[in-house]
Amino acid sequence: MIQELMNAGIQIALALLVVFLVWLIFARKRSGFLKFAGLHGAPLKAMGIALIAALIFAPLTIAMFMLPGLADAATGPDTVAGRVQALGITPETIAIVLIIAFLKTSGSEEILFRGLIAKRLIAWLGFGVGNTIHALIFASIHLLIFVAPGGPAFDPVLAAALMGVGFTGGWVMAWINEKRADGSIAPSWLMHGLTNTIAYPVLAFL
To answer: Is 151 left (phi over 0), alpha (psi -120 to 50) or beta?
Structure first.
């Protein structure tokens, strides 16, 4: 657990460093760093929308990873679900799931994807085009599962499922942030982290 916490801290620090350097070089005269990166509070209504969205996307994510070819990759020994499957539900595994879901995965990814990539593309290209390109980039990252050690062989149906869920989730998260939360990445962090928190243990025992 301590190791996972350290790993999560390193990933978040690196993500923050990247965003900070971009802000320092290109935007420090126009905006404060916290506002630039979306590192501020969000209205409760926006957090509520994110909560509802997580409850919708968690079953979609679970269903996607139950597809033949993805199920084994999602529950392998080196995955979060695989570790939960092996260790069972204990206070330690619950803590590990929360650390990975809310810090290691969603923490660093939200800082980079919604706090940097989405914001900059939307600022340059407008919300519709910018958010669509950002969501395509976010979805494409999920295709790396096909080249990861122990990952499934490439399959166009599986790739389409990963792209579809990843694109829709990414687009919705940025929409909530930018249109309902004054640019805060708190809603997308909640949605992303909660979706993963629900999905990991469910996949472990299906």
So the answer is: beta
- Look at residue 69 in the predicted model and tell me its pLDDT: 86
Tokens 């929409």 belong to 175
CB 19 within 8 A of CB 116: yes
Compute the average pLDDT of residues 111-135: 98
Domain parsing of the chain, residue ranges: 2-205
Residue 170 CB partners (closer than 8 Å, separation 6+): 113, 118, 134, 135, 138, 139
Assessment of whether the complete model's pTM goes beyond 0.85: yes
In sequence order, the 6+-apart residues with CB closer than 8 A to the CB of 153 are 69, 146
**What is the predicted pLDDT for the residue at 176?**
98
| Residue 139 vs residue 83, higher pLDDT | 139
Q: At what angle do helices 186-205 and 44-65 cross, to 10 degrees?
A: 30
Distance between alpha carbon 205 and the CA centroid of its chain, in Å? 22
> Who's near 205: CB < 8 A, 6+ residues apart?
84, 85
* pLDDT number for residue 149: 81
